[in-house]
């Protein structure tokens, strides 16, 4: 199974549309969204193409393929307008004999990690900065960056996961990092 993993759309219909194109181009089976889908939040400027109602329509077309965790910008009203669950704090994926703990990053993060074993993965967005770091305890922290509001000069992008291989890609599909676990 191939996963496409993305975070922090923040209501940009423009970049959500690019993400959906990438989902099709990648031939992914599932789309894992790491939160902050519709609202830009008080700390961010409006992203280009800000149109949350359009994002709702775009994502609704993939409702049977989406898994999502709640970001710090999600609220109960978001669940009322989206046809797939968005309020879970985390989701678990088992791949290549490893556990992937997927969350947004505002609750569970490298400063407050869940129970992980050596080789496991803490996967979260929230920072808008791509990451690939093995912590001293032996587990990995991975971040796909942001779809619409990247920070620290990082590209707009996403991750794919297939057979234990994580690939970081720009929204245009250019691979720029990888990790095989």
UniProtKB/TrEMBL annotation:
Domain Calcineurin-like phosphoesterase per the UniProt entry, residue ranges: 1-162
Matches recorded under Pfam families: Metallophos_2 (PF12850)
Superkingdom, taxonomy of origin: Bacteria
One Gene Ontology MF term: metal ion binding
Enzyme class, spelled out: hydrolase
Keyword GTP-binding: no
Keyword set includes Metal-binding: yes
EC number: 3.1.4.-
Cofactor names: a divalent metal cation
Keywords: Hydrolase, Metal-binding
InterPro entries named in the record: Calcineurin-like_PHP_lpxH, Metallo-depent_PP-like, Phosphodiesterase_MJ0936/Vps29
Coiled-coil portions: none
Family indicated by similarity: Belongs to the metallophosphoesterase superfamily. YfcE family.
Name of the protein described by the UniProt record: Phosphoesterase
Gene expressing this chain: yfcE
């Amino acid at each position: 199974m191939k996963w496409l993993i993305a975070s922090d759309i923040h209501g940009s219909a423009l970049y959500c549309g690019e993400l959906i194109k990438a989902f099709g181009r990648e031939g992914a089976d599932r789309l894992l969204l790491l939160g902050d889908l519709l609202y830009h939040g008080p700390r961010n400027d409006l992203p280009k193409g800000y149109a949350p109602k359009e994002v709702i329509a775009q994502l609704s077309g993939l409702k049977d393929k989406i898994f999502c965790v709640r970001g710090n910008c999600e609220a109960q009203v978001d669940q009322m307008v989206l046809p797939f669950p968005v309020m879970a704090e985390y989701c678990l994926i088992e791949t290549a004999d490893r556990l992937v703990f997927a969350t947004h990053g505002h609750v569970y993060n490298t400063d407050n990690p869940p129970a992980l074993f050596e080789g496991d993965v803490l996967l979260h967005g929230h920072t808008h900065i791509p990451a690939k770091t093995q912590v001293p305890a032996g587990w990995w922290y991975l971040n796909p960056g942001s779809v619409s509001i990247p920070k620290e000069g990082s590209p707009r992008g996403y991750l794919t996961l297939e057979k234990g291989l994580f690939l970081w890609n720009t929204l245009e599909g250019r691979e720029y990092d990888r990790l095989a676990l």
